[in-house]
Design brief:
- The chain is an alpha+beta fold.
- The chain is built from five helices and seven strands, in the order αααβββββαβαβ.
- The chain has helices spanning about 1-20, 25-35, 40-45, 125-145, 150-155; strands at about 50-60, 65-75, 80-95, 100-110, 120, 145-150, 160-165.
- Keywords: Signal.
Length: about 170
């Protein structure tokens, strides 16, 4: 009986790690904006077939804003001791019955697997406060895990999504 209980607990723990608790619809929509948005697609450096995305929503850092942090790891399972990724900051809104994903900031980072540590190769705009919030979001996302999406699926039409950028005229 004890072995059965241990097996069940181990299976539950593995399931919690293997199946991140993420809303794949919002992540898929953000991924669409990464591959189809005018500024965002310039940031994806390689001709990738797949994006490895994770996200975190924060409603406290920017008062009155729903902030969506999205990361994309170039390789979700690298053999090296570090993982290179891109981080994006979107403000979420609603307009004309569509969800607006407004890209506000981005950064390139390296996360070390051992110990704590995120180094910004290309830091976000906004200084130390922004870096600290982005680091906390990256760590939170890493606890949840990432999901792989095929780029060709993200390029499909999303009629309920509007992709915008900080560089768009208001």
């Amino acid at each position: 009986m004890r072995n059965v209980a241990i097996f069940i607990l181990a299976a539950l723990a593995f399931t919690a790690v293997a199946a991140p608790q993420q809303d794949s619809s919002i992540l898929r929509q953000a991924g669409h904006c990464l591959v189809e948005g005018r500024d965002a697609k310039k940031l994806l450096h390689h001709d990738r077939k797949e994006l490895n995305l994770g996200y975190y929503i924060d409603t406290t850092a920017y008062p009155g804003e729903r902030t969506l942090y999205v990361i994309d790891y170039e390789d979700p399972n690298p053999s090296k001791s570090q993982m290179k990724g891109l981080a994006f900051v979107f403000f979420l809104g609603d307009r004309d019955n569509r969800t607006v994903f407004r890209l506000e900031n981005n950064a390139t980072f390296v996360r070390r697997r051992r110990g704590n540590g995120i180094d910004f190769v290309e830091p976000p705009l906004g200084g130390v406060w922004t870096e600290e919030h982005l680091e906390a979001a990256i760590e939170h996302i890493n606890e949840q895990g990432v999901t792989a999406f095929r780029v060709k699926d993200l390029k499909e039409k999303f009629p309920d999504v509007r992709c915008e950028s900080y560089s768009d005229a208001r």
